[in-house]
Structure formats: C-alpha cells, structure tokens
Amino acid sequence: MNKPLPHPVPGSTAEAQVRWATEYAAQIGRDREVRNRSGIPIKPLYTPLDVDPARFDADVGFPGQPPYTRGIYATMHRGRTWTQRQLIGLGTPALYNARLRDILDKGATAVSLIPCNSVFRGYDMDEVDAELLGTCGVVCNSADHMATCLAGVDLARTSCAMNDPSPFTLLAFMLDTARRNGVDWRALSGTSNQSDYLSHFVANHMFFRLALGGARRVLIDHIAWCAEHLPRWNPLSVVGQHMQQAGATPAEALAFTLASAIQYADDCVAAGMSPDDFLPRFTFFFDISISFFEEIAKFRAGRRIWARITRERYGAQDPRSWRFKFHGQTSGVDLTRQQPLNNIARVTAQAIAGIFGGLQSMHTDAYDEVLSCPTQFGARIAVATQNILREEAHLTDVIDPLGGSYYVEKLTDEMEAKVVAIMAEVEAAGGMYAAVESGFVQRRIGESARAFQERVDTGEQTVVGVNRYEVDEDASSRPALAKPDTALMDAHRADFARYKAQRSQDDVERALADLARAAQATGPGRSNIFGVIVAAAAAGCTHGEICGTLRRELGFGHPLVVV
Amino acid sequence: MPDPAFRPKVLITKIGLDGHDRGSRIVAAHLRDAGVEVVYTPPWQDIGTVVKLAIEEDVDLIGVSSLATDHLIVPKLMRALRDAGAGDVAVIVGGIVPDADEKMLLDAGVARVFHPGVKLEDIAAYVHDASATVRTQRFPVTPNA
Amino acid sequence: MPRTDAPPAADRSPAAALAARVAALRAGDRATLARAITEIENELPSAPALHAALREHAGHAHVVGITGPPGAGKSTLINALVTELARRGKRVAVAAVDPSSPVTGGAVLGDRVRMDIGIADNVFIRSLASRGHGGGLARTTPRVVDVLDAAGFDTIVVETVGAGQSDVDIAAFADTSIVVSPPGLGDGIQAIKAGILEIADILVVTKADTPNATRTERDLLDMLRLRARKEGWRVPVLCTSATTGDGIAKLADTLDEHARAAGIGRRVQRTKDPAVTPLPADRNEALRILASRDAFVRHCGIEFVSGGAGRAAVRMRVGHEHLNFNGTCHGGAIFTLADTAFGLASNSHGVIAAGIDAHATFHTAVRAGDVLVAQATEASRGRRTAIYRVDVLRDADLVATFTGTVYVTTRGHA
Prior knowledge:
The complex is a heterotrimer. Chain A is of the alpha/beta class. Chain A contains 23 helices and 9 strands. The longest helix of chain A is centred in the last third of the chain and has 23 residues, at about 405-430. The mean pLDDT of chain A is about 90. By secondary structure, chain B is an alpha/beta fold. The radius of gyration of chain B is 15 Å and the shape is globular. The two termini of chain B are about 20 Å apart. In chain B, about 60% of the residues are buried. Chain C contains 12 helices and 14 strands. The interface between A and B is large, with 46 and 34 residues. Strand 2 (about 35-40) of chain B pairs parallel with strand 3 of chain C, so a sheet runs across the interface.
C-alpha cells in the first residue's frame, strides 16, 4: 500500500517516511501477514508513533517503581543476576544428592527437587509399578529420604525449590531435615513449586488427585501456615508454564495465570488474611518459548498488570506485594527429537528472552530432555548456557535493555490489552475456579494447541529439522541414555520396607488420625491442615500415607478434561 | 475403499503415572476430525482398566501416549490384552520413547511408535489402515452376505 | 427352532453359530456382548438376525434415560447413581451417547471420563456416537439397548447428548426418563421448559451443594404445578450432589418406585422397532419404501415410478421452484432427478450402495410444466463397484444423460 503516513514522526521529515513506505512496498512484493503466537499482528516497522511519550511514567517508568514494566528492583540484573535453578531429580535420594552437589559445584546457586511421578501422583514406591520408579525424578517418600537428598546443603543459606503439590509433604519433610540439622525454620528460603492446583487441573494433572475443593482448602491453609512460621518461604508459585506447555498462547498463559493469582488472593482474603500478609510471598512461574520478543513483552506486561491488580483490586500498601517475581523455564515443547543438539541453540534464544524479560530465577532445559530424562552431560551444558549468557555475553550490563524499543514497547501494550481481555472472559465465567471447573480454560487451551500444531503440520510455522531442513540422521549418534540402576532402586525399596516396619506404629497411626480429624473439621477454630501434615512427617508418616488419608477425607480429584 | 459407515473406533489413553496430556488430546481431536470415533480417557489409567475398556468398547486400536517413561509398562499392557483374549487390538505408542526402548516395544507386539514431530495426518492415515485391517479380521465378509 | 443333537464342533451352520453367540452373551461373556453391539451399531448384514434372536430375551431390564442440557452434570450423576445401584447388588450397563461431528462423522466419546465406576466388574459401559441422528441418540441406540437387555443387566442407563428438547426421543423407549438440570442456569431451565420437561418422570437438580440449587428446585416445582400429572405418578424433583453423595440413594429408591408404578420393558411389548422391519422381498415395493424415506426426494417433488433389480424410474413435474434465473429448469434439479433414479437402481440389490462419482450432460432446455422421467439401468456391477446409466426424457426427447458409479457395501438397508 503506497500511501503517505498520516502523521509525521517527530524529528523526522514526512518525506523520509513516505520514501520508506514506498520503497518497502515496491521491494517486498506481496507482503505476508505476520502474527505472533498470541495472534497479535506484527507490522514490518515500528516508529515513535507507536509509543505515547506522555505516558512514559504511567506505562514504562523506572525499574523498581510501579508499574514495574522495566523490572521489579532498582538494580535488576546489574546488581544481582537471576538465581540459577536447575530442576533435577533422578533415582534414589543418594543419586539425587550426588547430582545436586555436582551442579552446585558447577555454578547453580539454588536447590531444586523434582520428585518421581509416583510422588507427584501421591503414592509411595510400594504402591506403583516398579518399572516407573525414579525414571523422572527422585523417589522421596519420607523425612529420612529428604535428609539424604539434602545432605551437605546449608539450608539456612541455600534457596530450595520443591516441586511439591498439595499437600506439600516435601516441605514437611524438609522442615524435619532442618530441625534435625538445627536450622531455624525462620531462616529457610525457597518456594513450594507446583502449589498452583488450578494449573494442574487445567494442564498437566500432576496434582495428588485431591478433589478441586479439597486442594483449594489445603492450599489456603498452607499459605496461612507459612505466613506464620516461614517468613522467607514462598508458599505459592502461580504457574503459567503448564498451560503454555499444554498449548496456551503466551497471552493466554499469562492471562490464566494472573486470573489464578486473583482466585488465590480472593480465597486468602475470604479466609481472613490481609493482602500485605500474603501477596509479598506470591511468586510466578512461566514458560519461555522461542517466540523471542513476544516472551519479553509477556513478562513486561505481566509486571504492569500485577502491579495494578495488587494496588487497585486488593489495596496492597507494601511495595513487596506489587512485585511480579517470577521463575522462567525454557520451553520443552519447542525442543525437537530430530537433530537434538539444535536444542542448545533453541534454549539459548529462549534463555535470552527470559533474561531480557527480567526474570528472577531460571531453569534452562537440557538439549536431550525431549529424548528422555536429561543426562548429566546434557544438564551440564544447560548450566553452562546460563553461565555464558550471564558472564560472557554482556547481557546484564544494562537494565531492561529493550525498553524504549518502539516495537517492544508497542508489543508490551498489545500483549497487555490481549491479556486483560482474556482475564475479563475468565471473570465473566465466574473467576478462575469456576472457569476451570466448567472446562472453559481447558477448551480454550486445547483449541490453541491444535491451531499451533496445524501451523507446524502445514509448514506455516517452521520447526528446523522437523518440517524444514530435515537431514538423514544416524539414530546411533544420539546420546546414550543412562537407565536408572535397578539394583540401587531395589535396595531403596528394601530400605523403605524396613523403615516402615521399624518406626513407631502408634505415632504414625495417631498422626494420621489427627490428620483425618483436621480434614473432617469445618468452621472456625479447626486446625490448620498443613500444620498437622508437618507433625505427621515428623512422626514418621510417609508421603503415600499422608496423601492417602487426605484423598479419603477430601475426595479423589477427577481430572476435568475436555477434548 | 472402507465402508464409510463402519467407522474406526479407537481408544486414546495414558497409563502409568505421568499427567502430560497435550499430545493425547491433540491426537484425539485430530482423529475425530479425520472421521474416527475416539474413546478418550484421562491420564493414569490402570492396565486392567484399559483392557476392560478396550473389550467393552470393542475398539480396533489403542493409542498410548507416553511423555515421561510410562511406555516402560506397555509390555505389561500387551500381556494383559493377550491374556484377556483381546490380542487382536492394534496398539500404537506416541510420545517420548528412546530408540532402545522403541525396539523393546516393537518386540512386545506394539504395532508402531510415533515420535515427536510426526504429522497428525500421518497418524490418522495409519489409524484408518490399522483399524480396517483389524475389522477385516474380526468381520470377514461371508459369501452369503 | 428344533434343537440339534449334532456335535456342535462339526456344526458350522449360521443358525448354530448364532445360537452359540446368544448363549455366550447371555452367560455374561463381555467380549461377545461388545462385539454384538459393534455389529448392531454398524448395521452389518448379520445384525438383523442377531437382533431378532436377542430381542426374544429382552424386556427384563429397567431402562433409564438420562437427558438434560450440556454441562448439567449428567455423566457425574450417572457415575454416582451407578455406583449406588452396583452397591445394591445390581448389574448395570450404561450406553453413553456423544455427538458425532456433522462434518467429518468422527466423535470424541468422553463421557466415561467421569465414570470411575466403569472399572467395577458388575458394570458395563459402552460409548456410542450419535452418527448424525437427531434426537440425542444414535439411530441404532434402541437396538443396542435390546442387546444389553438380553445380556441380563438389571438396569440400563442411557445417557443422551445434551441436545435440549430433541432429547424427547429417549422417552419412546426408556421405562423411566430422568431430566437433569444444573442449578441456577436460567437458560438451562428455559431449555427444559421448552420441551423436555414434558418427558420427565423424575427431575433432578444436580450440584445441590452449590448456592442456587434450592431456587432451581423451587422453579421446577412451580413449572410442574402447571402440568397435568402423568398417569398415577407425581413427578418428583430431587436434589443431588455427586460431591457429597446427597440425594443419590433417594434417586435410586425413586427409580425403583417408578419401575413398580409404571412397569418395565414396555417398549418390547408395545412396539416392534420400526427401524428393523425388513424391506419386502418385492423389489418394486422395496424401492418405493426407500424412496419414501428420502427427505430430499420429497422436497423436490420427485415421484417413484417403478423399479426392479438394477433399474429404477422416477418422475418430476418441473415447477417454478425448479427454475433458474434464465427461466429454464435448473440443471441441479435435473441432476437430482437423475441421481435419484441412480440411487434407487444401485440400491435395488438389498445392500447399501454409496455414490462415489457422477456426471451429467444436458442436451436441451426444460421449462416449467414439462414432465421429466429418469430411467436408470445397470451398465456393470462388480463385487465392489457398479456403474449406472440414466436417461432423462421429456416424452421421447432425451433431455440429459447421466452416468454414476457406486461403492457396494455388504450392509443391508435398515
């Protein structure tokens, strides 16, 4: 389209603009329509006309100040870079401990723990198929197991993230380890990851199959208990990652995550908590896809929207309540089985998007994650990728280095508008709890997942090595994958059986009876369920016993699946 | 050309412990749009449940989605199907399956393993063919029909 | 039917094989039952005989239809109800109907997702696609229910697609019809008011643990007051919660009461399923019946003239509704007439033939008032395909010629 721009760019001659537009139209031929994954149309060029300088303070501002578009702290990565948090978990507690110490030595600065899928599902190792034990995470079923996992880690100085869905047994076990090591609970820092039960019902169902209502109650008790006993602990991590991995667009993932955070905050207020008591400890967890600028805009928009929600909807006064703290994980679904080493390049691009997006902690995927659970070789490259980006690439010299880019500022505004519109739909559906219960969110994500897959299938979206630039590969060139050592796992199972036989059965039965009573009780004056779980862990109850008791009392969660 | 009214009927499921169901949902929805009748289950089905379901629904094919090592118990499923007299059901596995394990699955009687990157239409085409084969064995055309 | 004393192993006659299957199905063999349903559902050539043999044994199960708007919680309610019935020692079957895609014919059958009780030994669940049949059921669902009935289940629950008022079909063969409403759904109530309320023997408000349930119950009771009582049965409104289990036992009790009051197996005594009435052996008559079942043929004003093995003739008087913008008969109307003759001729051998290709050549213009006759003859017929030629005549003038190819199936006409 060869027509003059309606307004001249300030400081430029109209002639220059018209000339560009004319030359662009002549040289591009038939221009293609470009949209990002969230469906926002992308122009070929952005200029000062795309930003409103009068809204600088309102929309952009300075780091560490509302609306926090440029970062939640005044110093951001120039002061302190992100926490390098690699999610690991494989096999037995002893194997986990060895791997943990290895990556701490290699530059990781915090602990994370991914339990075995049997733990995710709420079972002990003697309740599931032995073939599946320890293949995707560490088999940690008791306080003793946790003590082994964390042996040699200074819990007062190391931030710990547990992939620990409701009812938060891993934290209960860790508290027991701290008690044994003489560490004051008030010094413990870290996060209860996977505490966002709504995201599990929406996307990957790693909850303990507590019914939606039961999960809701346990989470609110957990937040209240941590607010009282663990001042440095983040009891809630609201997760957009599952939803984006399940196919939500970046805008949908952010919108549904913020809608979940509103649901949790509403529930906390309803339970009598004051916003400034719990909001400072809310954290977020997002996927970082390879849609580079879109991800950066997503994070900048997220900070701005959250600051508005906390201040306007909840009247929070404490600036810590306004800050949108988040962990980012590079997206596993962008990785390909074909030519797996290419994934190192993908992870690098994703990680830079996360860094420019202003994240507080990061996990970079291992290139071989798409083939199996990552090998140690793959995990080391993932750590090295972060080290290179942090210390070689000069990415952290400037705060929000893309701030002021006409494109990035405009895209941030457009992502914000898109996200706010989706949040309004959730609100109209009765809030996130109701929207999940009715399947609204699941349907929406399912549609986006299919639409993306179809773009890949038709070749509209290039995936290198999958639908373009395919090469004949020798499968034997793929890394050899270590199988879990079945002898070690058998020994772990035998130890566990011995442990269960030797502990005080009276203590265990009493603790589980207390737990059942706490779950049955309603109304004011009832015990905090999480407090009772902490006591049960100390009394020697296992993960499966605690989960089983709660499943019985609070109902089995049916997956709310919509195709 | 298959009889247009005799639609393929398949079961799309996940066994074991993992809950990542994006793949199974996308495949189920695509197969529906390719004219297939899909019995869909959420994750974590017991092997016994899958066998009961396959028999009651009289499906031609079972698609097992596995993203996090659950494929390791697929050989148990194959044995259970045979023991229940349902050994004629075609079983395919899709998801993250290491090369060495693929061979193990094929040896156990799995008809085909689909890896990430496969086109949905290729899965649908395979399902139509495999279903027609199973149906032909189950309902041979009798000369007096 | 005389019982044979011949050694069964040697006797491979179709009658003996059928008898053996019926015996196995009635003895509780699930694979035999499931396979029989497949045959009935897909209307295989063997289905009519199988259905006839099984229907002899039907009429003993309590058939419960459950319908209601989408999202009413039907599947969850059924799970709770079936759990309760199984606890009471009943053998229960569920036929869960989900919609087929109108475009592709595919379907996702996800109702059993919410039916955990499906793992129980005394419960049998079968998912069925509606396959384009209106009324919330598949065309063959009544026959599938007969099969489950013959298999000796005490209760057969039929869940329909939540299609609102078109669900009235279910009342035609269920002994007890339950209409389900979620609480506080104004639109849901409207949908119920508009039609399916009339078929309810029992009204259920689900999710009774949520705030609006009581109001919904009151609204429904108000609506019932405006309605005449069903013969000797006061339609109750029950509130249930699958979460707490409240009201489920009461629903099971009420089902028993209704079965006693209204009786069970009425459908078997009352009607012969018209859908399974075989077509007459006389081909001319059979084609006349097929033509009469064709909605589009009726719509276009096409009449059946005559037919036989591999041939058919149909006729149409061209009216103003058949004209194109030039004032002559629309080519599509002529094509339709020819295609109708083609369809009947190709279906004249007692099995379904599906058109896969057709071509028409128009020789002369046709005007309003002209009477056209299309005559189809079989040019060739193989095992899988057959080719037909159709002449469209105005008196002796050849107006159009048409050729068509069909794929020949092995299924008989319903």
